[in-house]
Structure prediction request, 415 residues.
Amino acid sequence: MAGSASTGESSRETRTVAIDAEVLAGKRFPYQEDMSLVEDIDLLAATPGQDINWLEDITLLEEDGVPAVFDRYSNSFLKIYFDIPEGREDEIARKVLIRHLTDGNSYGITLKDIHCKFPQVELGPWVEDSRIVGTEWKQPVLEGWTAPAGH
Amino acid sequence: MPGSGSRSGVSYDARGLVEPHAEMPDNIEVDGHRGRFDAADLTIRQINMALRKLIYNDGVTDVTVLNPSSKHSLAVGILKRCRIHFEGSPGWFACGLIDGPEVTINGRVGWSVAENMMSGVVTIERSAGSLTGAAIRGGDLIVKGDVGARTGIDQKGGTIIVTGDVGINTGFMMQRGRQIICGNAGMNLGDSMYDGAIYVGGKVRSLGVDCVPGEWTDADTELIERKFRIHGLGDPPELQKFVCGKQLHNYDALEPSERKLVIH
Prediction:
């Protein structure tokens, strides 16, 4: 995201290229800083099929010099601030992402409740008893507008 | 907005979608977590309504659809973990945009099966048409037969396994993920691919632009043996690996120049 921040009297702007999950959510999440909060996640149970399925393509990446995992549901990077043990990079990245999704913190999930037009499970396939959203969608009405004759 | 557009005798809902026959079918059988219905005399919308009702509202986790009769766009947009069985052949765009379901199709499918699948497993017991697995982002798609042209076009993740032959332009503009082709591949394999890997057991008619033989690693062996094992496909054939030569599209070459436009 080409976000910008003012630096006092200077008009100099700091811009970044990436879309950051923290910026979208307006806060940092505890599991970004504490590995113990993701250790117990069962990746096999969290994914369809007999292996880790779609998580096969999720690997630990780096954004702004910080280890990060890409959340495809919000097109954003979720940074990881704790030390990741050597040899467990991808596993930890996947666990952080699954925690982010199952907790409903992905920005894409936030948008579902507001904008989705069709009934669908809010938390996707990650949470068994997720509520259904999109059942109350109503066509927006533009005040003062009338349909042209013949339509 | 029911009734809008009714001059033609067709009604539309508030989203502007046509409602040719939107009554919930009355032939749905539910037994605990299992559901089943015959789709022979149902419209596409009725079939999808029944699937959504069973999976989203009734807590059914295992649905069997009898006689899909080559109808198009069945089981599209299901975003929940469940099992769906088709006894017969769906038409085009079956199982598109799914995220979570494990689907078996005891028949063949038309174009674009599992297009844009996010996660899940789709297993087709016979052959599939062109554009199989177009733009899939994750999950496993298994075709126990031959497929048409442009398999996995624009693929962004996931694994496509074809036990038979594939047509021309397989893996066109592939960006990530894997394709395992046990049979022969048509012309222009992997044309303009950005990334990912294509494994071919048979003959390759010709390679596309920037598709080159790749180096085999232990990770390739592990992945292929695991996928064949969990999907009950027996022993994998001897395969040759193809990857992107990184001469045409190369993220590392493009990204710094893009960043220069933004960071100042």
Q: What stands out?
A: Residues 100 and 106 of chain A are 6 Å apart (CA to CA). The longest strand of chain A covers residues 66-71.
